[in-house]
Design goal:
single chain; 340 residues; alpha/beta; Peroxisomal Thiolase, Chain A, domain 1; 2 domains; 4-stranded mixed β-sheet; 30% helix; binds oxa(dethia)-CoA
């Protein structure tokens, strides 16, 4: 990777997605949990979620999503400079991005993981944009992928019904500043509230010798104070979006699509209401996938680009939020692949 000598804009060129084959409905969950389709739908909007099976590793899903974004962009994989994988559930704690880089054939790229839970894709987008703007990269493959199904307590109805597995990807390219597709962003973290949503290291030590007892690796299942996270989301997400709109001189009415982290339909509705946006402009696929953590935003974007809802030139206001606590917003303009 070498530095080019000009500042650049960022183009959102093409998307991709991959989800596991196995879809599990709310009714199926109620076979072993004291829950119901009515409770889950009315409280969250979730109807089903995908759960990764054999052969559907995080790496495989991320690579499938990435490959599709590269194909849609019409790029030679070898032309990619950076593969950035936003995930909290890598197959390898040393990082899964290099394996994804190899699988997609991005032989010239540097690859690394970025962990920011459900805000990961948004944090990744901003990180990728810095590489593109300073000229360190011309092309970036950004992937948001998570497989939280392996870190859930499947007997805990307050958490396991909410999450699913998936991957989404975005091909990003440097462009002239005048064509910039990332109009602004704001990111925030507050570690003082990290106990609201955690996937902590498990307790446990092995004593090798008296006084020598290294901790054993492994994590406890995801823990969440749902009400606190809910209150945090409906307070911070409208606030960060409003601040971003003010900063960029954008009227809410100019937003074509509100693309939020898909955690709960009630959060999407509350944020839209506070911004004065009608329900038709809110993208939601919670019913089919639930909360796929770092994958929700690119998975939703890919669906809306593929079915023609999101069109070239449209303005998208996006916000991610979750563990950390972390949150942020980005104002983007969709470009789409260059036409010959
Ligand atoms: O990506 C990370 C971001 N995460 C989020 O954004 C999550 C934000 N939080 C939420 O979406 C909501 O707080 C939840 C969907 C998690 C929970 O909804 P809630 O309206 O806050 O429910 P609650 O936790 O107050 O629970 C209400 C009742 C309780 O029973 P009691 O104590 O009133 O008898 C729960 O035990 O619902 C019960 N309950 C369930 N009942 C049936 C909790 N989970 C379930 C369930 N099925 N799955």
């Amino acid at each position: 990777m070498t530095l080019a000598a000009f500042p650049a804009g960022v183009s959102l060129v093409a998307s991709g997605a991959a989800t596991p084959a196995c879809s599990v409905s709310n009714d199926q969950l109620s076979l072993w949990l004291d829950t119901s389709d009515d409770w889950i739908r009315s409280r969250t909007g979730i109807g089903a979620r995908r759960i990764a099976g054999p052969g559907e590793s995080l790496t495989a899903l991320a690579a499938a999503a990435g490959r599709q974004a590269l194909e849609r962009a019409g790029w030679d994989p070898a032309s990619v400079d950076l593969v950035l994988l936003a995930t909290s559930t890598p197959d390898d704690l040393f990082g899964s991005a290099p394996q994804v880089q190899a699988l997609v054939g991005a032989t010239g790229a540097v690859a690394f993981d970025l962990t920011a839970a459900c805000s990961g894709f948004l944090f990744g987008l901003v990180t990728a944009s810095q590489y593109l703007r300073c000229g360190a990269a011309q092309r970036v493959l950004l992937i948001g992928a998570d497989q939280l199904s392996r870190w859930l307590d499947w007997q805990d109805r307050s958490t396991c019904v909410l999450f699913g597995d998936g991957a989404g990807a975005l091909a990003l390219e440097a462009c002239p500043a005048i064509e910039d597709g990332l109009l602004g962003f704001r990111l925030a973290s507050d570690g003082r509230r990290s106990d609201c949503l955690r996937l902590p290291q498990r307790d446990g030590r092995q004593e090798l010798q008296p006084g020598i007892s290294p901790q054993e690796g492994g994590f406890s299942p995801l823990q969440m104070n749902g009400q606190e996270v809910y209150k945090f989301a409906v307070r911070e997400v409208p606030a960060v979006l409003k601040a971003l709109l003010a900063e960029t001189g954008t009227e809410a009415a100019a937003i074509d699509w509100l693309l939020l982290h898909q955690a709960n339909q009630r959060i999407l509705d509350a944020v839209a209401e506070r911004l004065g946006l009608p329900a038709e402009r809110v993208l939601s696929n919670l019913a089919a996938y639930g909360n796929t953590s770092a994958a929700t935003i690119p998975l939703m974007l890919h669906e809306a680009v593929s079915d023609g809802r999101v069109r070239p030139g449209q303005l998208i206001a996006s916000s991610g939020f979750g563990a950390g606590l972390s949150w942020g917003a980005a104002l983007m303009r969709w470009r789409g692949p260059a036409t010959a």
